[in-house]
Amino acid sequence: MSDEVSGFASALAALAEAGVDFVVVGVGGINFYARTPAEAFATLDLGAQLAPTVENLRVALSVLSGLGFEFESAGEPFVDLFVRKR
């Protein structure tokens, strides 16, 4: 198993443990239904769709940040997990 796939599996396990509402999409989702290894696809197309609620996204970002994931666009952070709610 590649590092990308094992990291993805670890992230999914952590999200599930934290109660994050998500579904695996793309090839990862298709492979869930493979009955044998011969029916599985081998790509790095890994994705998960998160339920779009503020609390769900907050928990997901916190969990993923704790695993070492970073969130950026064009080299700049696009989320500050430490902003306090008003």
Number of strands: 4
Largest sheet: 2 strands, antiparallel
- Rg, Å, rounded: 15 Å
Spatial strand order of the main sheet: 1-2
What is this entry, summarized?
The protein has one domain. It has helices at 3-17, 26-32, 54-66, and strands at residues 22-25, 47-50, 72-73, 76-77. The chain is built from three helices and four strands, in the order αβαβαββ.
Write a concise keyword list for the protein shown above.
86 residues; globular; alpha+beta; single chain; 4 strands; 14% strand
Structure description:
By secondary structure, the protein is α+β, with helices and mostly antiparallel strands. The protein has one domain (3-77). The protein is built from three helices and four strands. It has helices at 3-17, 26-32, 54-66; strands spanning 22-25, 47-50, 72-73, 76-77. The protein has a two-stranded antiparallel ribbon with strand order 1-2. It has a two-stranded antiparallel sheet with strand order 3-4.
Task: Describe the protein's topology.
Blueprint: H1 3-17, E1 22-25, H2 26-32, E2 47-50, H3 54-66, E3 72-73, E4 76-77
Antiparallel strand pairs: 1-2, 3-4
